[in-house]
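Hey, resending since the last one bounced:
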Amino acid sequence: MPGDAYVFSAPLWRWPAKDAWHFLSLPEDVTDDIDARWGRTGGFGAVPVEVSIGATTWRTSLFPDSQRGCYVLPVKKAVRVAEGLAEGTVAEVELRVRA
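The structure tokens again:
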């Protein structure tokens, strides 16, 4: 897989809508480095990634969030349950871009 892993901590937050998704916001320096090295490759500016939180690893995409000025990482329910994550929980994340 190209590139080094990005390792960071971020609190889990819920999109403010019914049946909303949960996300983590990437730190500004990680967002800037991903933009500089890979740019936005997919539809909606998505960037394909492989992510590990705890013992769970999965593939997904990052999405740019203009309100927050960073990429956001969706965290599906199966991961939240497996890793005991609730809204506000700080997650330790390892992420690699799958460009």
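The helical segments are 28-37, 77-83.

Sorry for the duplicate.
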